[in-house]
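Workshop exercise sheet. Pairs work together: one partner reads the sequence aloud, the other fills in the structure field after running the prediction. Swap roles for the next sheet.
Pair: D.N. / O.F.
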Amino acid sequence: MWKKCMRTLTVAGLVVASSSLFVSAAGKDVQSQIDGIMGALPKFAVPMREVGDRFQNMYFAAEGGNWALASYMSRYMNKAMNPAKITKPNAYPDWESFYADDFAAVNKAIAAEDLSTFKKEYKAVISSCNSCHSGMGYDFIKVVKLPAPPDKFIEYNLSSKAADVPK
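Structure field:
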């Protein structure tokens, strides 16, 4: 028991000592490391690609009665934008406001499992997306409802409840 404890303490000591040396050497160039990490994180374009796919999938899930999948797509569509909290801190509040305000009616329709209201609000969100893109100088990005879902290997016609999504 004593030998095992001493070995553990020795290994822990070596880890701490080597960590200190690494941090000390890295401390000289911490800002450039931070800049490198920031440069590797996606800004808006990459997460928005995921947002677009999930937004389209959501429609086909709702239409197929797979309300849990529609709810799941909405939740993770929003979470896909989390990198922008760090990489675009001045622009992220626009997304946050869009999801909380403009998108709220879509989420309510999903929770109510109301396809008619969902379709109406989904169409309104498309208009809102296009207005936002235009206002930000991205007139060339026009959202349309696709004729088929981007992810073809998901069962959209699976009866489920919006509340079925684990928290």
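Discussion prompt: The chain has a mean pLDDT of 86. What would you look at next?
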